[in-house]
Design goal:
The complex is a heterodimer of chains A (about 220) and B (about 240).
Chain A lengths: L4 H41 L3 H16 L2 H14 L6 H25 L4 H9 L4 H32 L10 H12 L2 H34 L1
Chain B lengths: L7 H39 L4 H16 L2 H14 L6 H26 L5 H7 L4 H31 L11 H12 L2 H30 L11 H7 L8
Helix pairs in contact in B: 1-2, 1-4, 1-7, 1-8, 2-4, 3-4, 4-6, 5-6, 6-8, 7-8
The chains are: A mainly alpha (about 220), B mainly alpha (about 240).
Chain lengths: ~220, ~240
């Protein structure tokens, strides 16, 4: 058998349609993770001892175990304790939790680069705590973590390919289905790889654009 | 619905978990060696004068980093027989994992070399060191200090990514977990065990890396003393008393 470019070109429309699944799930996950990561960060800043101990345990767990295992935990284990989730919901929840933790850790690193004088100034103006976060810290924090968020977005997109393992019909699973009917796994998998290449290179490019714009604003 | 934790499953199947964990460790070590060697080669290629080598190195890194590992793995696993080469799944998996990691190691090594102030090597030579001495005492330690922390991070990512090899039937830890799960229908016990073993492996590797960092004198977290007010927002942990 030889590599058939015509066959590869012919199946790209099908894979592009399947890519919408990955894109939609990725968008949901990134929004959830950004909200979750920010909430976790603010919660940790309150320094309530048992809460922070629990979060530290969660961070160690999420960072210390494979994402695939975390997806399996949501998919296989939660039903065993009475919480039946669809593969899509279980997968989105697993990746969103994973990503929230990584975003919160990034924010932890960026927070200490903020100017403490601004907190003093905000407090001197008797700005309430929630406004110090909303008006002073978060706008600067988001700007600082933006490059990492762009990178995290590409990680999330790649993570959605793992959902094919728990039967979510995404690009990879569609490719596998096509391959099992046509016996041409090489072309179809190359097609799936090209889809992810296109998505992630676009995200990186857009990210660099947005960063450039922010840099201009700051100057 | 079943709530009770049944430890007899773990007692009965522990040899499988052990075999799986051992293969995970073996695969990770081999992929690390392959990945780092390739990574250094790609980094050096990217630092060579001329546009073509740099373009080749950049494309290698960008392409491998943009594609999910599971797809890289499948392309190699299903693509090799296509070109008439049939290799055992653990070998294919190890090579794929090494390739995947090499793209990230290449970036780390490149950044580490670029971060080195210019003229360090020449200065060392000028005060009478041999090239070997200059590498060993001046350049080596500085590059090592820059690349060990990110390399540790990437290695932990790679170890965790090895779980994906289960999908091409490499009998590593995750695969064995899925086998036991299929036999017992006890997901809670099985994934608790698998999770704990991965956690143990990554904690051990992270601990070893921290000891290495301390020996190399990697800068410790800046103990910026801050006023209490700013700390109540900007620090997420209580500062430890020294």
């Amino acid at each position: 058998m030889s590599f058939q470019f015509a066959y590869l070109a012919g199946l790209m429309p099908n894979l592009a349609v399947a890519a919408l699944v990955n894109l939609r799930l990725s968008a949901m996950i990134i929004v959830l993770a950004l909200i979750g990561g920010t909430a976790l960060t603010i919660l940790r800043s309150l320094k309530i001892r048992p809460v922070n101990a629990l979060i530290a345990f969660l961070i160690s767990f999420i960072r210390g175990t494979p994402l695939l295992i975390q997806i399996f935990l949501f998919y296989y284990v939660l039903p065993a304790i009475g919480l039946d989730l669809s593969p899509t919901v279980a997968g989105v929840a697993a990746i969103a939790l994973n990503s929230s933790i990584f975003i919160s850790e990034t924010m932890r690193g960026a927070l200490i680069t903020l100017d403490p004088g601004q907190i003093e100034a905000a407090t001197a103006l008797s700005l309430p705590r929630h406004l110090v976060w909303a008006k002073v810290i978060l706008p600067q924090l988001f700007r600082r973590v933006l490059p990492v968020l762009v990178n995290e977005a590409t990680i999330v997109v790649k993570g959605t390919a793992l959902l094919s393992v728990i039967t979510v019909v995404d690009v990879l699973r569609t490719a596998q289905q096509i391959a099992s009917a046509s016996y041409r796994p090489f072309e179809t998998l190359i097609g799936a790889a090209l889809v992810f290449l296109a998505i992630n290179l676009t995200i990186s490019l857009l990210g660099r654009r947005i960063e450039g714009r922010f840099a201009v604003q700051r100057a | 619905m079943r709530m009770a934790f049944d430890p007899t499953i773990l007692v009965q199947y522990w040899p499988l978990f052990l075999q799986g964990a051992w293969l995970t460790i073996q695969v990770s070590v081999q992929a690390f060696l392959l990945g780092y060697t390739l990574g250094i080669a790609v980094a050096l290629l990217g630092l060579m004068p001329g546009r073509l080598p740099r373009l080749a190195a950049t494309s290698y890194v960008e392409v491998l980093r943009a594609i999910p590992f599971i797809i890289i793995l499948f392309v190699i696993y299903y693509g090799l027989p296509f070109s008439g080469l049939r290799l055992p799944a653990p070998l294919v998996g190890t090579v794929a994992l090494g390739l995947f990691a090499s793209a990230y190691y290449a970036e780390i090594v490149r950044a580490g070399i670029l971060a080195l102030p210019r003229g360090q090597f020449e200065s060392a030579r000028a005060i009478g060191m041999s090239p070997l001495q200059a590498m060993r005492h001046i350049v080596g330690p500085q590059v090592a200090r820059a690349i060990v922390p990110p390399s540790t991070n990437m290695t932990l990512t790679m170890i965790k990514e090895s779980a994906v090899l289960s999908s091409i039937t490499v009998p590593e830890l995750t695969y064995q977990g899925l086998v036991v799960q299929g036999n017992t229908f006890a997901p809670f016990e099985v994934f608790a065990a698998v999770t704990l073993i991965y956690w143990g492996i990554t904690i051990a590797v992270a601990g070893a890396a921290r000891r290495l960092e301390r020996r190399l004198g990697v800068a410790q977290a800046r103990g910026v003393s801050r006023n209490r007010l700013a700390a109540s927002y900007l620090l997420l942990e209580r500062e430890r008393a020294r």
